[in-house]
Design brief:
Elements (H helix, E strand, L loop, with lengths): L1 H16 L9 H18 L5 H14 L12 H10 L3 H13 L3 H5 L4 H6 L2 H10 L5 H8 L6 H10 L5 H13 L1 H11 L3 H4 L12 H18 L4 H15 L4 H23 L5 H4 L2 H29 L22 H13 L6 H27 L1
Helix pairs in contact: 2-3, 3-16, 4-16, 5-10, 5-15, 5-16, 8-9, 8-18, 9-10, 10-11, 10-20, 11-18, 12-18, 12-19, 14-15, 15-20, 19-20
Length: 382
């Protein structure tokens, strides 16, 4: 009888030991589970950047379980981080896929639209100086680049500058990318009149030679390397992906880069960056500040592009005015921002088609954002 009781007691103790780890749960962990759940919900229900937000959401839950074996010295996510993020490898490889997706043809037909891509980076530099009141120079620069709405560039800059807030910066950058259809329309309406939104723009179709399309990524890489040496890795990998697309002899490789390659890297990027969303580092007032400053950068990027178009209109004759809304497409969120501007134009006037102009500006924003990232790195390094 005594042996039976001892055996039962031992079994019960072993059973209860299975649940000992529950006592290690912290309320901040539970909060991170909720955040992870929200990211998963947005990915599945709202289809907002699912290839990124789904692994990021699940990874957030994974790393915030008590005594999680996913992170730490022997944790697989820590190993992935060291192998792909700490050395900037994953973001740069992803740029090859992004470059292969982009058709620079519409922009090359109207190269003057590149000016809007440059103007729409205003928010980055404005926020950089504003963030200096709250963060050190490296963190301020990393936070400012959120305004480009370019996840890989944000990761690259934050990592090069050894920012303490990589997880929060990553979440903010990709969240604002996904929220372009919600954030941009009210901002654009706030700084334009109905008359301006009704402006129609002529689009003249034309062919761009294959030689021009091949030379463009090479020339851009050289110019960017000379003007902003720190941007050469970002611009170079983006342009290399585009060269694969345009060369005409690597079609299978181009399709792979655009689809399987880019998707696998995005999944790895999402779940790996989640390893930096540990509750002790993430649940802070600083995180809210980063989200707020990132929004400021994003909003002022949009405003900068619109105001630049309005400025140019001061010197243009009636009938040849620019619809200021296209300036808002100069951020890097491709092709979401270009589509949003076109939809806004059609909502004001169902015959006002701005897609080609807005997409051209949006493409220029891809180049401008990575150059802006390089300029920020150069500015901070001095």
């Amino acid at each position: 009888m005594t042996e039976s009781l001892l055996l039962s007691s031992s079994v019960l103790s072993d059973f209860l030991a299975l649940f000992e780890n529950i006592g290690n749960t912290d309320w901040r962990m539970v909060l991170m589970w909720v955040i992870g759940g929200v990211l998963i919900y947005l990915a599945i229900k709202k289809e907002m950047e699912p290839t990124l937000l789904l692994p990021m959401g699940f990874g957030t839950i994974l790393v915030n379980l008590p005594m999680s074996g996913a992170i730490g010295h022997d944790g697989p996510l820590t190993a992935l981080f060291n192998a792909g993020i700490a050395n900037e490898l994953f973001p740069l490889l992803l740029f090859i896929g992004i470059g292969a997706m982009i058709d620079f043809g519409p922009l090359l037909k109207n190269p003057w639209l590149m000016l809007f891509g440059a103007a729409a980076q205003f928010g980055i530099f404005f926020t950089f100086f504003a963030a200096r009141f709250f963060f050190d120079v490296n963190d301020a620069a990393s936070i400012a680049i959120i305004g480009a709405a370019d996840g890989p560039t944000s990761i690259f800059v934050a990592n090069v500058l050894h920012s303490k807030y990589l997880g929060a910066i990553m979440v903010a950058a990709y969240s604002y990318m996904a929220l372009v259809p919600i954030v941009q329309p009210p901002v654009i309406k706030a700084v334009t009149t109905k008359k301006e939104r009704l402006i129609r723009m002529k689009y003249t179709a034309g062919e761009v030679s294959k030689t021009t399309k091949i030379m463009f990524p090479i020339v851009v890489t050289i110019i960017a390397g000379l003007v902003a040496p720190k941007s050469v890795a970002l611009v170079g990998f983006l342009m290399f992906g585009n060269l694969i697309r345009e060369c005409g002899v690597l079609n299978n490789l181009s399709e792979t880069a655009q689809n399987s390659f880019a998707n696998i890297l995005t999944i790895l990027l999402g779940i790996t960056v989640a390893s930096q969303m540990y509750y002790k580092d993430f649940v802070k007032v600083d995180t809210l500040m980063i989200l707020l400053l990132g929004l400021v950068a994003f909003v002022f990027d949009t405003i900068g592009g619109v105001l630049f178009a309005k400025f140019l209109n001061l010197f243009r004759k009636p009938g040849n005015k620019i619809n200021p809304m296209i300036g808002a497409a100069g951020i890097s969120a491709f092709p979401m921002s270009g589509r949003v501007v076109n939809q806004m134009g059609l909502k004001e006037d169902n015959q006002n088609f701005l897609l080609m102009q807005s997409i051209s500006v949006n493409v220029s924003g891809q180049i401008a954002s990575v150059i802006a990232g390089g300029l920020i790195l150069t500015l901070v390094s001095k």
